[in-house]
């Protein structure tokens, strides 16, 4: 009786590859299908009158790509670029348009196979960042990796309101 | 066989062609509305409908074919003079064209199907039929060949009455499918009779089968016609243009050589004797000539088979016919060559080219930078030459996308006609500067806001005829669309001579809506600008045309999106002008590079009027202030302070004076770096609400520089500064009030 159900439940659970990285001391991960490339932290042009976490724009082989500071988005201080600071370029659809965005992270760790059976829902508080940014917590031998809900982190409405507030001040 | 993709590509081509044809047809119709007798327009209209029907047939779009067929029949009747185009008929035809356009838009490109709801079409067709019925009663068919008023009928000599040398001989053999394609040969003969007198007309029924074998839908007939006219051969051919595919046409000019007639007799499918007798009967040949000729031909064909064709070459066409035909052909060829010198190119290919040119501009700038830092004089010189060429290429590439605004303007003839009729107003549309060129992507986006402004002007701006007369104005209202260049920008004006904006009512409405403070002391100009606020409408009664208050803010946002601006000039009782200023292009501009500390910015060069040096102490540390520029106060803004960038440490600073419409301001910057070809890169969604910055570009060294959007910067400054200065102003007003 239960057999077909179990099979059905496990079918979509095939492990998904994630890119894990560090922001401050915590470990985070993103589905690797979103990631286009990882580049060295380099010349960033500041865009004025934007919220602090919008670092600016970079020239990615002739395309102008906005760069977000994940730490600042999570509410920490702006990143002081170090030796291992990187920009992770992701591509996703926002408002029906393909958009490339760079995320500043402190270090890139590895590519993880995360089995969805090992993903726990986010705790209501205590993860260090806004709960709605968290898609799930992946458990492994070293502890938990926070899987980010990129759409929430990059919510245009959110960013719009913040930038309007910034311009009005 | 074609595969699905190719088929839908073809269909896509048809849809484009059809839209063009519909547009043409509409223009012709509107032209006929003004001058109902314009034959060129009638023919053009007919041709457009005919082509549309034919192409639709290729794709088996049956509903479209049958609908256009009705229009075509009606036009055929108009063409041969049985019916005239009255204004109500023109209106009806316009509605039918709309129906055709909507049918074309319904075509499913993938499946090639055309799902149609036929009720609307049937209504229109019923209206057409009703109309045709009336028209027939009103206008008796008078044009049917009045048999030869010419006394020289049937003679070979020069016809004294009608300037023509003898008669043309036309032999026409119809294709069996003629009727199935919806043509009535009689209509063509009626039309032919407008060219001149039909002296003689014989019906050839030789191929008519026995009654039991006859298919009533097939055409078995042929015609032998003698026509007395001074028209050229080409003109006669044109009469039968539309049945070209369904008939065989042979035309002999007057006074052709005997051999030509013999050749004709020989070529026609009927027996030589029969055709010969017709020619004799019509007086083109004598009995004797015919006999002699036939004998001669028999002889000739035995001895020298080519003789006939040589003779044809020598004497085929009479000299006066040659001249006329040549002149006619020449003009036709010129027209065609003008048409064929245009090439249709897919827009995305142009975009690709312009993108590549953009990359080229950036890399060329990089190369020049390298060369300069290297210091090799030869290298610097070469890169400079390269850069000059790149600049030329850039200009040429951008010109490719420029199209005239006239097409967009002309569309408004229809809008004005429809809307003014609906409202019972008499309005004339005047168009100026139709040849002004503008980037295609800009023109496409401009159509909607322009329509809105035009509708508004007709609905709210221009008064009814009685009101106009009472106000001492001519009863006919005037609407003007105007386009011209001004300091590197395109200006488009929508002007009416109506009642103008009612400043007091706008002010009252704005207070009611809570948009402004009741005590605010606004200049007239500022009050007018309030109509661009969202949800603002002053029309007391909402009509289905305008007045819902959802338009003007949309107009504003579209213009903003095009990096343009809009202003209003209104005089109460005398009229109102909306003036839209737009950049010439959206892709690459001439920029002026400045820097603030480490950050680079580009100011569109068109906006820059001059640069001044500034003493460090002049403005102090404040972000905003003013300077004395040749006796006038020049408002200044320190960009670094405005953008919250680190304060400048450099002692010598510069002021870039920028100009936008009537406003002028100085931007305080650190360094000037001169002109720069600026490839505009969009900043993307994250920055779409950023005011004062319109895009970005990549400098030769790979760094990204931001492009200032001066109009939006000005607007932002005004709101921003007024908001913060409002607190200061308010008490002062109170005091003066007491």
TrEMBL record, chain A:
InterPro entries: CheW, CheW-like_dom_sf, CheW-lke_dom. It is found in: Cytoplasm. Its main location: cytoplasm. Gene3D superfamilies: CheA-289, Domain 4, SH3 Domains. It comes from the Bacteria. Residues 15-159 form the CheW-like domain. The keyword Lipid metabolism does not apply. This is Chemotaxis protein CheW. It comes from Pseudomonas indica.
UniProtKB/TrEMBL annotation, chain B:
Residues 3-107 form the HPt domain. Its EC number is 2.7.13.3. One of its GO terms (cellular component) is cytoplasm. GO terms for biological process: chemotaxis. Keywords: ATP-binding, Chemotaxis, Kinase, Nucleotide-binding, Phosphoprotein, Transferase, Two-component regulatory system. The modification Phosphohistidine is found at residue 50. It catalyses: ATP + protein L-histidine = ADP + protein N-phospho-L-histidine. Pfam families: CheW (PF01584), H-kinase_dim (PF02895), HATPase_c (PF02518), Hpt (PF01627). InterPro entries: Bact_Chemotaxis_CheA, CheA-like_dim, CheA-like_homodim_sf, CheW-like_dom_sf, CheW-lke_dom, HATPase_C_sf, HATPase_dom, His_kinase_dom. The keyword Hydrolase does not apply. Involved in the transmission of sensory signals from the chemoreceptors to the flagellar motors. CheA is autophosphorylated; it can transfer its phosphate group to either CheB or CheY. This is Chemotaxis protein CheA. It comes from Pseudomonas indica.
């Amino acid at each position: 009786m239960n057999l077909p159900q179990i099979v059905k439940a496990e079918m979509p659970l095939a492990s998904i590859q994630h890119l894990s990285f560090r922001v401050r001391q915590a470990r985070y991960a993103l589905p690797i299908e979103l990631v286009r490339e990882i580049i060295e932290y380099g010349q960033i042009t500041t865009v004025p009158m934007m919220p602090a976490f919008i670092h600016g724009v970079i020239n990615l082989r002739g395309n102008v790509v906005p760069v977000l500071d994940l730490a600042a988005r999570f509410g920490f201080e702006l990143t002081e670029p170090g030796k291992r600071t990187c920009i992770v370029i992701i591509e996703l659809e926002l408002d029906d348009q393909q958009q490339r965005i760079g995320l500043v992270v402190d270090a890139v760790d590895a590519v993880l196979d995360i089995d969805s059976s090992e993903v726990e829902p986010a705790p209501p508080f205590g993860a260090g960042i806004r709960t709605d940014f968290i898609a799930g917590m992946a458990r492994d031998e070293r502890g938990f990796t926070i899987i980010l809900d990129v759409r929430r982190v990059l919510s245009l409405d959110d960013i719009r309101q913040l930038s309007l507030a910034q311009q009005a001040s | 066989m074609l595969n699905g993709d190719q088929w839908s590509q073809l269909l896509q081509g048809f849809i484009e062609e059809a839209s063009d044809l519909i547009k043409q047809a509409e223009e012709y119709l509107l032209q006929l509305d003004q001058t109902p007798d314009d034959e060129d327009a009638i023919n053009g209209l007919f041709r457009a409908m005919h082509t549309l029907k034919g192409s639709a047939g290729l794709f088996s779009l049956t509903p479209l074919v049958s609908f256009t067929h009705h229009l075509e029949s009606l036009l055929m009747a108009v063409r041969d003079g049985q019916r005239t185009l009255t204004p109500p008929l023109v209106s009806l035809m316009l509605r039918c064209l709309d129906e055709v356009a909507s049918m074309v838009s319904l075509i499913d490109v993938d499946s090639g199907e055309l799902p149609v709801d036929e009720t609307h079409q049937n209504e229109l067709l019923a209206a057409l039929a009703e109309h045709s019925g009336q028209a027939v009663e009103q206008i008796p068919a008078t044009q049917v060949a009045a048999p030869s008023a010419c006394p020289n009928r049937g003679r070979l000599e020069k016809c004294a009455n009608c300037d023509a040398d003898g008669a043309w001989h036309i032999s026409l053999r119809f294709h069996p499918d003629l009727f199935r394609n919806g043509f009535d040969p009689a209509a063509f003969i009626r039309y032919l009779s407008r060219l001149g007198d039909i002296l003689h007309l014989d019906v050839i029924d030789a191929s008519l089968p026995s009654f039991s074998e006859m298919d009533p839908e097939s055409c078995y007939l042929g015609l032998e016609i003698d026509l007395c006219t001074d028209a050229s051969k080409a003109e006669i051919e044109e009469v039968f243009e539309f049945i070209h595919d369904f008939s065989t046409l042979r035309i002999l000019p007057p006074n052709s050589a005997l051999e030509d007639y013999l050749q004709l007799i020989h070529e026609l499918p009927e027996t030589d004797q029969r055709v010969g007798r017709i020619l004799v009967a019509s007086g083109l040949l004598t009995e004797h000539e015919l006999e002699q000729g036939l004998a001669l031909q028999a002889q000739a064909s035995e001895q020298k088979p080519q003789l006939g064709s040589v003779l044809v070459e020598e004497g085929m066409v009479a000299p006066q016919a040659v001249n006329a035909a040549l002149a006619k052909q020449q003009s036709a060829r010129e027209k065609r060559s003008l048409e064929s010198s245009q090439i249709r190119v897919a827009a995305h290919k142009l975009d690709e080219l312009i993108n590549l040119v953009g990359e080229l501009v950036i890399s060329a700038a990089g190369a020049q930078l390298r060369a300069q830092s290297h210091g090799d004089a030869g290298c610097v010189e070469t890169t400079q030459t390269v850069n000059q060429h790149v600049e030329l290429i850039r200009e040429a590439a951008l010109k490719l996308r420029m199209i005239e605004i006239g097409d967009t303007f002309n569309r408004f003839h229809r809008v004005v006609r429809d809307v003014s009729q609906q409202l019972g107003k008499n309005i004339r549309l005047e168009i100026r500067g139709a040849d002004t060129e503008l980037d295609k992507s800009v023109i496409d986006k401009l159509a909607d806001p322009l329509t809105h402004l035009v509708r508004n002007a007709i609905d709210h701006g221009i008064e009814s005829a009685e009101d106009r007369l009472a106000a001492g104005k001519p009863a006919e209202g005037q609407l003007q669309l105007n386009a011209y260049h001004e300091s590197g920008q395109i200006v488009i004006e929508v002007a009416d001579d109506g009642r103008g904006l009612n400043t007091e009512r706008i002010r009252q409405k704005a207070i009611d809506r809570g948009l402004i403070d009741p005590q605010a002391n606004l200049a007239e100009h500022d009050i007018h600008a309030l109509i661009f606020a969202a949800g603002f409408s002053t029309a007391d009664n909402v009509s289905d045309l305008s007045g819902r208050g959802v338009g003007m803010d949309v107009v504003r946002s579209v213009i903003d999106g095009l990096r343009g601006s809009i202003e209003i000039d209104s005089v109460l009782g005398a009229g109102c002008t909306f003036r839209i200023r737009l950049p010439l292009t959206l892709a690459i501009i001439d920029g002026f590079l400045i820097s603030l500390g480490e950050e680079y910015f580009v100011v569109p060069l068109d906006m820059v009027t001059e640069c001044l040096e500034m003493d460090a102490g002049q403005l102090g540390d404040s972000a905003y202030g003013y300077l004395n520029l040749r006796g006038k106060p020049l408002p200044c803004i320190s960009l670094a302070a405005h953008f919250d960038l680190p304060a400048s440490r450099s002692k010598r600073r510069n002021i870039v004076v920028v100009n936008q419409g009537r406003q002028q301001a100085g931007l305080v910057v650190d360094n000037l770096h001169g002109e720069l070809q600026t490839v505009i890169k969009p900043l993307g969604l994250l920055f779409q609400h950023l005011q004062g910055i319109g895009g970005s570009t990549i400098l030769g060294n790979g760094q990204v520089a931001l492009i200032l959007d001066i109009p939006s910067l000005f607007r932002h400054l005004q709101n921003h500064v007024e908001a913060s200065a409002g607190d200061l102003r308010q008490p002062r007003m109170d005091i003066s009030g007491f």
